Amino acid sequence: MITKLLGGALILGASSSTGFTVAGNLARRPAALRQLATALSLLATEVGYGQPLPAALPLAGRAAGPLAEQLFGGAAGRLQQGGGLTAGQALAAALAELFPASPLTSDDREPLLALAAVLGASGRDDQLRHLSLCQQRLAALAEAAEARRQRYERVARYSGVLTGLALVLLLL
User: Fold this and answer.
1) What percent of the chain has pLDDT over 70?
2) What does the DSSP 8-state code read for residue 101?
3) Is the pTM here over 0.70, yes or no?
């Protein structure tokens, strides 16, 4: 009997934990996207004032928040190490490193990869246009992610707990 209760508690705990993890990712994604959009706005300001990308990237990242600091700081670090990387290659590499541990989806990654393809490859005005476009795309994704969070966050939590309870009832 004790083993059944212990097993039931483990099942309930595991399914509840899964539901809360999904809900947590739904909650963190809009904030992460807003943070990246803010960082791009700050980066555009720095580039607009003539700051070179290796110096502008960490400034924009630090001012926007931890996720942006990790992305843009990582790109700046790669640029400062040398190795012949372009700014776009450094940003793409930093994004590839950051992506698995972040709440971002593959749809969120696309605008940043598109920016990485052109970052540092043209004049200031063109850079500003690409930064603005990426910022707008991330802001739109943040709005959609916020709507999704409002709709599904509570459902994910309850689903985890209720699924666990259903499994426990079926197995006991």
Assistant:
1) 100
2) G
3) yes
With a cut of 80, say whether residue 83 has pLDDT above it.
Answer: no
**Helix residue spans in the chain (DSSP H):** 2-48, 53-64, 66-81, 87-98, 106-118, 124-171
Distance of CA 90 to the CA centre of its chain: 17
Q: What is the mean pLDDT of residues 141-149?
A: 95
Residues 54 and 62: beta-carbon distance below 8 Å: no
Distance (Å, whole) CA 141 – CA 143 = 5
Distance in angstroms (rounded) separating the CA atoms of residues 21 and 156: 9
- Residue 1 is predicted with a pLDDT of 80
Total of domains in the chain = 1
- Containing domain of residue 101, as a range? 2-171
- Tell me the Cα Rg of the chain: 21
At 109 the pLDDT is 92
Cα four-point dihedral sign 145, 153, 65, 109 = negative
CA–CA gap between residue 172 and residue 158 (Å, rounded): 21
Average of per-residue pLDDT across 141-170: 93
How far is it, in rounded angstroms, from Cα 13 to Cα 110? 35
